[in-house]
Amino acid sequence: MNSLLTKSAAELAAMLHAGEITSVEITQAVLDRIAAVDEKVHAFLYVDAEGALETARAVDAAREAGEDLHPLAGVPIAIKDNIVTRGKPTTAASKILEGWKPPYDATVIKKIKAAGLPIVGKTNLDEFAMGSSTENSAFGPSRNPWDLDRIPGGSGGGSAAAVAAFEVPLALGSDTGGSIRQPGAVTGTVGAKPTYGSVSRFGLIAMASSLDQIGPVARTVEDAALLQELISGHDPHDSTSLADPVADLSGAVAEGAGEPGAEGATNDKPLSGLTIGLVKELEGEGYQEGVLASFHETVEKLKELGAATVDVSCPSFEYALPAYYLIQPAEVSSNLARFDGMRYGLRVEPEEGPVTAETVMRATRAAGLGHEVKRRIILGTHVLSAGAFDAFYGASLKVRTLVQRDLEKAFAQADVIVSPTAPEVAFKFGAKSDDADPLAMYLNDASTIPANLAGIPAISVPSGLSDGLPVGFQIMAPARQDALMYKVAAAAERAAGKLAEESPAKDWEE
Ligand code: GLN
Questions:
Q1: Catalytic residue flag (residue 159)
Q2: Tens digit of pLDDT for each residue in 42-51?
Q3: pLDDT tens string 457-484
Q4: How far is the CA of 155 from the centre of ligand 1 (A)?
Q5: Per the CATH hierarchy, to which homologous superfamily does domain 9-316+402-507 belong?
Q6: Which of 133, 142, 159, 179 is catalytic?
Q7: Cα(444)–Cα(286) distance, rounded to whole angstroms?
Q8: How confident is the model at residue 262 (pLDDT cuts 50, 70, 90)?
């Protein structure tokens, strides 16, 4: 394997800056790796070799001409296929959007293009980002590079698998209930869900708008911070966008890692003065022993790095999962109404009978949407109906408020709170995809959902292996304190070591 492929985005950026390498060389290495291994992994739904090389050439020429460039200029990136890219296929892994080419770029894509990162392709996901394994993709699942018989998590399993398989150093994901963090956990990569509103949702194909958030996928905490800095910022096209200035996340990473400052000495207690809360409700029943062992080992190491710990309790978390699986489908039923066979994407006319708006809609949706998506639209439509609204949707909104209050109380006791990211390591294909029991899949999201319901930032960092499979460590911080989250994440990474070093994907024959 080309040695460029195991380098972090920050390392590649430094080499580019020093003139040791060109973006064309890096981009070509990435494209060659994708060509060699993606047949196994199936992380990509679309590869744009020509587009990526064109950007790489332009960045190299600009550097040659002495132009001022973004620090990540020339470093390749992959994009989850529910983020729209002008003129390039965007499917959300659904047949209903197969062949559709968006007429505009998402705000995050505009920022990535302006910064000069070659976009190498679009990554696989559960259809419309509903799922925890990529098994709901209409185009077949992605595979976990640590064990190809296992799921890479979901919905953003494609982005996580691509980064874990050294196909690309950076990717974008979206996280509505954990779709960046849970794939991060099970593939041994880093994934962050920023504070709600800090990254524009304009151009993210809407699933559940009050929960959706775009965020970074990477192999190191520093890379995730650099990418999140790049995509953050106010956007007038998103009415929920925050006006906050972009925080210095990479500075926080350097602090948390205890990197030598101006005085030159490494800080052995970078977390001194900080209190870390362990959430009682996010361990115990349902969590695998190996996952809990790795979690507690990392907590012990964070104490060695200076942190104090405290037990916190969030009793409402027991109801967070059921509340999410009512609020989320309710918003889905509204957002997905736009896929009607009239405006864009698939259009199927009925085989017999009159061709009316209703019969075309019915035939299009029957043919174009998968089981899970239909299940959620039906459930969501039901919970918003007059007779069911108060009992289900209204009650779920109350739970959402209780979750927010419990978190406020927890953050009064602790600066950040931590938990395992997912209750289990990567499971085998088919283990939880029985249509008769959708709950088995939903239970994977128990630890990740509270952060979405409350709009707070949360990140998953690899904490080690259990039976040879990666385990994720989750850090949650109060809203707008993403920098604090990254500081602790950097310390956790220092404590646990960089898991990617041990990945079997390093030794694959190409
Ligand atoms: N697994 C969750 C769901 O299916 C989360 C999805 C997501 O974050 N996009 O809804």
A1: no
A2: 999 999 999 9
A3: 999 999 999 999 999 999 999 999 999 9
A4: 6
A5: Amidase signature (AS) domain (3.90.1300.10)
A6: 179
A7: 9
A8: low
